[in-house]
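call fold(seq) -> tokens
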Amino acid sequence: MTDQGKIRVFPAPPVNKPQVRAPRKPAATVPPAPLTAEEIAAKFIILNQEDYRQLAAAPRRRAREAALALLFQIDLGGDWQHAQTVLSDIGLKKSHAAFALTLAQNADADRDSSDPLISRYSREWSLERLAAVDRCVLRLAISELLRSPAEQANIIINEAIELGKKFGDENSGAYINGVLDAIRLRDLSPAPEADPTPPRDTNT
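ret:
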């Protein structure tokens, strides 16, 4: 503090200049690494005969699991060239192997019908963003629903739920159940029959 006549003058406080920081570089976005063949095999059992021991013992369910294995390979960009080898390795009898191959090929052929239904009831997820196992299970089940009598719908849906639980994640069973049940109720239910009784003539 200094005196200038009768006025006391206080020195101005030092001005703190804001520090200029160099702009931060944006963090690099690292895409998720693709699954290796070993990771796919661990998640979905399709690569060698030893792994097939984990498939169902009941022939009909084992055939559905084999159909899912075939369709899963197609979804990953494979083809039908080795289908018979896969079915032979799984150990299905001829009739059940034919059933599995028919299910898988029908599901692949029916994608123009099944995929719009999956998209309609998967509002938060596009078809491409769905887990591959869930997508394949739904395609299998919807194809079978479209080609089977209505009284078999519950069996087909229950089998699909079990496939989702076994080969998908912890939420797959409930998700598959919700989508298939909506399709069954809203898209596959027969239209109500018209009342055959003619209306009464109230003018007589």
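Residues 38-186 form a domain with the N-utilizing Substance Protein B Homolog; Chain A fold (CATH 1.10.940.10).
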